[in-house]
Amino acid sequence: MLIDKIHLTVQGGRGGKGCESYNHRKDHKRVPNGADGGGGGSVIFRASHNAPGFDRLKLKQHLEADSGEHGSSDNKRGSQGKDLIVLVPIGTSIYRRENHLAIRDLQREGEEVIVARGGRGGSGNIGDKTATPGEEGERIEVELEFRILADVFLVGLPGSGKSSLLHRLTRAPVEGKDYPFATRSPVIGVYSYDDYKQINFCELPSIFEGSTDGRGLGTDFLRHLARAKLIIFMVDTTAKFSATEIEGLNALRRIVYEHDPVFRQIPNAAVVNKIDLGKDIGKVQEDLQGSGQIYFLISVKTGEGVESLLKFIQERIEEKGHA
Predict the structure, then answer these.
(1) Full-prediction pTM beyond 0.85?
(2) Please, what are the domains in the chain?
């Protein structure tokens, strides 16, 4: 399963001590020559395609940058502590754990934020100053939440053919196994067209009436819909997990919108798959027309209706300027 939420303790490096030192001259005068300590390094979170998953970050839950070096005699200032760069997946949001206030949402390659600053180095006694110790670095408890950056999310009942559709559109390496809950975690696929345009698809694990009670794989992964540009609600004509196709689509919408009412604002469309196996497609079409939903009747297996669906998706994503 995808680990998409963790907490960490983050601490900037301590500043180095200022030096108290004197140059003893031949005339017996003492001239202070102790230098300042170096500042501590900061902890910086940086979004990267090469970042490890949260499962790797979870192995080391306390992150601390290097301390600054102490100042020394003869005006030799301590070196600055090295910053700790923490690579996180693109799509990571960082919050203060105590009050869940947002620190930064990292959505682009190379985007970064200083999460815990290093402490200032102490003063040396040069110039008759009082030598001081370095300051402690900032310490903070943070929560990291990862939400997938995708344009189109496939949300469907078990066995509705989401994996097969994703593979047909994007050639994503998914296993189109014909049994419920084959998809255990979100799967990404990219559809490329017109030489340079791309649409990012994400298939989410299946949901059904019992999902809100913790059956199947639950509903926690629905949080990833926060970044969706378009949701495809998907059922099939075999109706194994609902009495009818319409009831199945209504159940999907209810579960998603109860998880977060804001998701109602995301454009969506209904897809009924496996029309090659349906016995009364005319009745299905009549019910869908009466519902007022944007809908598509398709067969991933034969390809019927898939091009029309894909054209609709392209137009909607391009309207939003996200292709």
Answers:
(1) no
(2) 5-146 (2.70.210.12), 152-319 (3.40.50.300)
